[in-house]
Write a structure and sequence with these properties.
It is a single chain. This protein has strands spanning 3-7, 10-13, 18-25, 33-39, 46-51, 58-60, 68-73, 78-83, 92-99, 116-117, 121-126. By secondary structure, it is an all-beta fold. The strands form two sheets. Strands 2, 4, 5, 6, 9, 10 and 11 form a seven-stranded mixed beta sheet that branches. Strand 7 (68-73) and strand 8 (78-83) form a beta hairpin. The mean pLDDT is 95.
């Protein structure tokens, strides 16, 4: 059974940093595309970043490019999201997701391309 467990969220001041982790079980992450999405109150869940299966591309939403970095540790079966220069607009619940069918690159940003999501971790950025 696939499980994704996020951790590392919290409250931080604007300009600060947080590092989120997503520990996977029931699958080997090196074989799949892993992504981060976020959902702010009253808004739809939106794409943040994705790292395609080992050796593949890493892509970011324009709103986080240059501030956030996604990485993976295949030995620990864990994906990370390093978030720097945080802004109040980054406040949201952050979710990890996995695409078990490794859809084409053009589908990587689409919510519907992902088969499993974690329970999420809250990130709150104060001004």
């Amino acid at each position: 059974q696939v499980q994704l467990v996020e951790s590392g969220g919290g409250l931080v001041q604007a300009g600060g940093s947080l590092r989120l982790s997503c520990a996977a079980s029931g699958l080997t992450i090196r074989s799949y595309t892993l992504a981060w999405f976020r959902q702010a109150p009253g808004k739809e869940r939106e794409f943040v970043s994705a790292t395609r299966r080992s050796g593949g591309a890493t892509i970011y939403a324009d709103s986080v490019k240059g501030r956030f970095t996604t990485s993976r540790d295949n030995a620990k079966n864990t994906v990370y999201l390093q978030m720097n220069s945080l802004e109040p607009e980054d406040t949201a619940i952050y979710y990890c997701a996995v695409d078990l069918r490794n859809r084409v690159l053009s589908a990587t940003r689409s919510l519907g391309s992902y088969d499993h999501f974690g329970q999420g971790t809250q990130v709150t950025v104060s001004s």
